């Protein structure tokens, strides 16, 4: 391939050849007018599906007024969204950024800064969990502890330890005089769609209170209605001290934030953190439209209803195809199927049936439909999964030695 023929985009993703031109609700349409059911949602980003009229209207209206002024000035759209987020959550303060990785990075800094500001600068260590994913910055990768992602980038940032299991006694054994807090996803996405569960989250809250350390939730993937509550930790009826959000809050527009209590937020004074584009008028206008929509009467009830319907259909598929799937995982519309064949083969087979999904760790396929998906969308997905399973079953029967071993690592593009 000549230089002029090659793509000049850096080859950091294993991309398919699909090229999408437009989207409608839960569907994506290619440049050749083929329709694909999007149950990846940009990896939990397109919470309201594609081309949602309220998001289009919000973006158009703001684009005709003001795009960017920097955080040297008060930004009314930012103030409005921060007020709304705090009114709906535990938080008193919000810092806006552009992505989940930035939100996680800010959360890490805030948790450490809180202790330094309160006379305990030695408290810098954060406890996280095996299988976690907090983003691609070096600190976020170090927090997750996935050595495959850290390899080749030199010494990893220090101050992170991972607990191998969701076990309160094992977590407490890791706490010492350097511990700043605990960092966890209420539902692990890339790590295999593992629902931590309300009881364990309540145990972590009690543990943090006992030892005077902070509890930080990474709700980048599980937040903004994805589990049937505005945030997944609400199922446990407890609150964190700090929380990272992104993905769904922008509905496709790059937007992230970390939210804190007053005590933690007070430590983040001028000069401690910053972002050039974070909280710009365009992003906040779209984020406000997303939040208003998700908080409308009946919206989260719809998510829970669709979840129940889809989960019931998936359970039926497990009974029919025990040679393909072994377990349903997750909560709300953050669902996964643990696979017997390699999950990469299943993702490809589903794509051949025009259903888009996302791989995850522990040989799991993730299903992340838009929160606005309908019963008909779910039925179409089940038909596609069934057809893909029939194809895979026939291939395995014809050539039982052909199936490669499942890759235990998470999807490298997630």
CATH fold name of the largest domain, please? Aspartate Aminotransferase, domain 2
- The protein's oligomeric status is single chain
CATH class of the largest domain: Alpha Beta
User: Which structural class is indicated by helix and strand composition?
Assistant: alpha/beta
The helix content is 25-40%
CATH H level of the largest domain: which superfamily?
A: Type I PLP-dependent aspartate aminotransferase-like (Major domain)
Low-pLDDT runs: 405-409
Q: Shape from CA axes?
A: globular
Q: What would you note in describing this structure?
A:
The protein has a seven-stranded mixed β-sheet, sandwiched between helices. A four-stranded mixed β-sheet has the order 1-2-3-15. The chain has a four-stranded antiparallel β-sheet with strand order 13-14-17-16, covered by helices on one side. Helices cover 37% and strands 18% of the residues. The two termini are 28 Å apart. It is globular, with a radius of gyration of 21 Å. The chain has helices spanning 41-44, 53-63, 76-88, 100-117, 138-144, 147-150, 168-174, 198-211, 262-265, 281-294, 299-320, 343-352, 375-398, and strands at residues 20-24, 27-30, 35-38, 93-97, 125-129, 160-163, 179-184, 187-188, 194-195, 214-218, 242-245, 256-260, 325-331, 334-339, 355-356, 358-360, 364-367. By secondary structure, the protein is an alpha/beta fold. A hairpin with a 5-residue loop joins strand 8 and strand 9 (194-195). It has 13 helices and 17 strands. The chain folds into two domains: 20-52 and 297-398, Alpha-Beta Complex (Aspartate Aminotransferase, domain 1), CATH 3.90.1150.10; 53-294, Type I PLP-dependent aspartate aminotransferase-like (Major domain) (Aspartate Aminotransferase, domain 2), CATH 3.40.640.10.
């Amino acid at each position: 391939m000549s230089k002029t023929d090659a793509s000049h985009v850096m080859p950091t993703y294993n991309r398919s050849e699909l090229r999408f031109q437009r989207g409608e609700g839960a569907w994506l349409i290619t440049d050749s007018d083929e329709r694909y059911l999007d149950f990846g949602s940009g990896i939990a980003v397109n919470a309201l599906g594609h081309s949602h009229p309220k998001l289009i209207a919000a973006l158009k209206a703001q684009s005709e007024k003001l795009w960017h002024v920097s955080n040297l000035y008060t930004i009314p759209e930012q103030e409005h969204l921060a007020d709304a987020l705090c009114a709906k959550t535990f938080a008193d303060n919000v810092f806006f950024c552009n992505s989940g990785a930035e939100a996680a990075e800010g959360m890490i800094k805030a948790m450490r800064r809180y202790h330094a500001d309160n006379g305990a600068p030695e408290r810098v260590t954060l406890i996280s969990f095996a299988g976690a994913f907090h983003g691609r910055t070096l600190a976020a990768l170090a927090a997750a502890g996935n050595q495959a992602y850290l390899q080749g980038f030199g010494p990893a940032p220090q101050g992170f330890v991972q607990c191998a299991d969701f076990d309160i006694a094992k977590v407490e054994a890791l706490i010492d005089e350097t511990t700043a807090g605990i960092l966890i996803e209420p539902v692990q996405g890339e790590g295999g769609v593992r629902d931590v569960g309300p009881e364990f989250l309540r145990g972590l809250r009690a543990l943090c209170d006992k030892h005077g350390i902070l509890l930080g939730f990474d709700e980048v993937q599980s937040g903004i209605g994805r589990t049937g509550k505005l945030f997944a930790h609400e199922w446990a009826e407890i609150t964190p001290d700090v929380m990272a959000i992104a993905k769904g809050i922008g509905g496709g527009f790059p937007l992230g934030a970390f939210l804190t209590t007053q005590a933690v937020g007070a430590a983040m004074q001028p000069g401690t953190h910053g972002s050039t584009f974070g909280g710009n008028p365009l992003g906040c206008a779209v984020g406000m439209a997303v939040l208003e929509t998700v908080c409308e009467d009946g919206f989260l009830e719809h998510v829970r209803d669709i979840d129940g319907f889809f989960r019931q259909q998936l359970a039926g598929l497990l009974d029919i195809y025990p040679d393909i799937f072994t377990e349903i995982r997750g909560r709300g519309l953050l669902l996964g199927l643990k696979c017997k064949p390699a999950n990469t083969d299943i993702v490809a087979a589903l794509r051949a049936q025009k259903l888009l999904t996302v791989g995850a760790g522990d040989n799991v396929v993730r299903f992340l439909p838009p929160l606005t998906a309908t019963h008909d969308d779910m039925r179409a997905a089940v038909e596609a999964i069934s057809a893909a399973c029939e194809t895979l079953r026939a291939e395995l029967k014809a050539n039982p030695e052909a199936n490669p071993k499942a890759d235990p690592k998470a999807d490298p593009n997630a």
